[in-house]
C-alpha cells in the first residue's frame, strides 16, 4: 500500500492502518518482553501511541511507515530470539516457560488476526483489493473467520 494510505485515517474517531500495524507490534512486545527479563521498552513514545488505551483522537500523528516497519521488524526479531531461547532450554525454568508460551503465542496470533481483518477491510475500501488468502493447513475457517484451533 502507498504510505499515504497506510498513514491516513478515515475520521478522528478511528485509527488508520499504520496505527493498527504499530499496535500489533506493541502488544506482541509487551506480552513477550515481560515473559522473561522485563526488557526495557524499545520506544516509550510508540508504547504510548500504539496503546489501545490511547483515545482514537490522539492517534492521528503517526511516525513514518519506515519507522513503523522497523519497529515491527525489531519486535519480531526479539520475539523469535526469546522463543528460541526458551525452546532450546537456555532459560531457567525453561519447561515451565515453554508451557506458558503456547497460550501467549495463541493470544498474539488471534490479536494479530483481529487487526488484520480490519486492515483487509480498509484495503478493499481504499481500492487495493483483499489481501491474499491464508495458505496454511493449521488454520480453519469458522463462520467466515480464520481461527487457529487449540487442539
What's the arrangement of secondary structure elements?
Elements: H1 3-7, H2 17-33, H3 44-49, H4 65-87, H5 94-125, E1 140-142, E2 145-147
Pfam families: DinB_2
InterPro entries: DinB-like, DinB/YfiT-like
Organism: Candidatus Entotheonella gemina
Characterise the protein shown here.
By secondary structure, this protein is mostly helical. The protein has helices at 3-7, 17-33, 44-49, 65-87, 94-125; strands at 140-142, 145-147. Strands 1-2 form a two-stranded antiparallel ribbon. A hairpin with a 2-residue loop joins strand 1 (140-142) and strand 2 (145-147). The longest helix is centred in the C-terminal third of the chain and has 32 residues, at 94-125. The chain starts with a helix and ends with a strand.
Short description:
The protein has 151 residues and is mainly α. It contains five helices and two strands, in the order αααααββ. The protein has helices at 3-7, 17-33, 44-49, 65-87, 94-125, and strands at residues 140-142, 145-147.
- Helical fraction: 40-55%
Q: Walk across the major sheet and give the strand order.
A: 1-2
The average pLDDT score comes to 86
Q: Which regions have little confidence, pLDDT < 50, spanning 5+ residues? A: none
The largest sheet, given as strand count, sense and whether it forms a barrel, is: 2 strands, antiparallel
Structural class: mainly alpha
Over all CA atoms, what is the radius of gyration?
A: 17 Å
Into how many domains do the coordinates divide?
1
Question: What portion of the residues fall into strands of 2 or more residues?
Answer: under 5%
Shape: globular
The number of distinct β-strands equals: 2
The secondary-structure element order is: HHHHHEE
Amino acid at each position: 500500500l502507498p504510505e499515504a494510505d497506510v498513514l491516513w485515517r478515515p475520521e478522528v474517531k478511528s485509527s488508520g492502518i499504520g496505527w493498527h500495524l504499530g499496535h500489533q507490534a506493541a502488544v506482541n512486545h509487551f506480552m513477550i518482553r515481560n515473559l522473561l527479563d522485563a526488557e526495557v521498552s524499545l520506544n516509550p513514545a510508540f508504547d504510548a501511541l500504539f496503546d489501545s488505551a490511547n483515545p482514537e483522537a490522539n492517534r492521528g500523528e503517526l511516525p513514518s511507515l519506515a519507522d513503523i516497519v522497523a519497529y515491527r521488524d525489531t519486535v519480531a526479531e526479539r520475539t523469535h530470539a526469546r522463543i528460541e531461547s526458551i525452546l532450546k532450554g537456555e532459560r531457567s525454568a525453561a519447561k515451565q516457560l515453554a508451557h506458558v508460551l503456547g497460550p501467549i503465542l495463541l493470544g498474539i496470533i488471534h490479536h494479530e488476526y483481529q487487526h488484520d481483518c480490519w486492515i483487509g477491510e480498509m484495503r478493499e475500501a481504499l481500492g487495493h483489493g483483499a489481501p491474499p488468502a491464508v495458505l496454511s493447513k493449521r488454520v480453519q475457517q469458522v463462520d467466515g473467520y480464520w481461527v487457529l484451533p487449540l487442539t
